[in-house]
Write a structure and sequence with these properties.
The chain is an alpha/beta fold and 199 residues long. It has 7 helices and 6 strands.
């Protein structure tokens, strides 16, 4: 037996389908939306519809944008000889927050994952190879996550790019700033030792 009217139950289910949102949080969000004025609820719904209609992949890097080129690809101050390969658009945001990187990006929109039925053809790998084949790129930085699928994807792409004689690098991984060595796991310590630099 449903405790709520079917319309409210449907709204709760829609919120619960979002990543990281459980049933209780979904109920709170649904009740919050119902407590707002109708114009506010309509503006919220319209923002979702407009985003879905107007946001699409950049023609060059496949980051999300609302114009033909994203702000990064259309910025003449960016280093056009370096591409940083990331899994998702949110990874671009994370790297841009660091303000260290000034090159271009390529968003794969996922990683190779046989368990989840994601093959290389489901990603934008073909488009990345085409960009490198044009001959302007000198370095490709692999910035996929340091998990099994991220590593598999990075190795697969590296093999495809080898014939182009472009420099292929991988983000360094290791002990985070402010962490104690005693709490770091073996894999992290091993990566930190392999990626050590001059001091």
């Amino acid at each position: 037996m449903n405790l709520f009217p079917q319309t409210l139950e449907t709204l709760i289910e829609k919120f619960a389908s979002l990543p990281g949102i459980g049933r209780k949080t979904a109920q709170r969000l649904a009740f919050f939306v119902l407590s707002r004025p109708e114009e506010e609820a309509e503006a919220f719904a319209d923002a979702i519809v407009q985003a879905k209609r107007n946001i699409f992949p950049c023609r060059v890097c496949h980051n999300l944008t609302d114009s033909e080129l994203c702000p990064i690809c259309s910025n003449p101050a960016r280093d056009t000889h370096t591409i940083c390969v990331v899994s998702d658009p949110k990874d671009v945001v994370a790297l841009e927050r660091g303000r260290e990187y000034n090159g271009l990006y390529h968003v794969l929109h996922g990683v190779i994952s046989p368990m989840n039925h994601v093959s290389p053809d489901d990603l934008t790998i073909r488009e990345l190879v085409a960009r490198v084949a044009e001959g302007e790129i000198r370095e490709v930085i692999m910035a996929t996550n340091p998990d099994t699928e991220g590593e598999t994807t990075a190795r697969y792409i590296s093999r495809l790019l080898k014939p182009f004689e472009v420099k292929i690098t991988r983000l360094a991984y290791g002990v985070p700033v402010g962490a104690n060595l005693e709490f770091a796991d073996d894999a992290t310590l091993s990566r930190a030792m392999e990626g050590r630099t001059d001091f």
